[in-house]
Amino acid sequence: MQINPRAIPRAVKPNQNEGESSGSGQSTIDVGSTAPAFTLNDAAENLPHHMSKALERGPLLIGIYKSSCEASKTTFPFMEKLHQAYPALTIWGIAQDSPNVTRSFTRRTGVSFPMLIDDNNYAVSRAYDIVATPTLFLIDRSGVVLWQRMGFQKASIHELSTVIADLFDVPSVDILAGNEAVPAWVPG
Known about the structure:
Low-confidence stretches: 1-25
Distance between the termini: 34 Å
Mean pLDDT: 88
Helix content: 25-40%
Structural class: alpha/beta
Largest sheet: 5 strands, mixed
Number of helices: 5
Number of strands: 9
CATH superfamily of the domain at 29-142: Glutaredoxin
């Protein structure tokens, strides 16, 4: 798959225009900002994963989460569906948990993409200014945040699939199909 160079991120924070402050006191790295670079080890084999190397291959979707969070438990199976639907996209989970708890979460959610450990006092979570879990960031090859959301909302997952499809210039996949029993949103 080739990346569509004309793909312009249409997604912005809900109820907010690009560049506006949310006024809610909650913040995170905004769409259009440069994502902080990081290197974290995975929970499976303790191998390092470098954001810079991932971006050399193409866009990166990261999901920063806590395994005890209900919204995270709902989000990660959908991230796996994105992983299956868009194989050219690199996806990483970033856990605010121990490697053992992360491996258990990986098994329970059926995730096959790398799950990284945000150790060292949550350095990556702090760099991305996380105020809720999960928080997802879609980052382009140049390190710019194209899309971000906190929590779980079906509409946001659908929107993310559309943004990814536009980015790769491929048809969008309905990753919500067959999941009618999943609520429209899940509190974190």
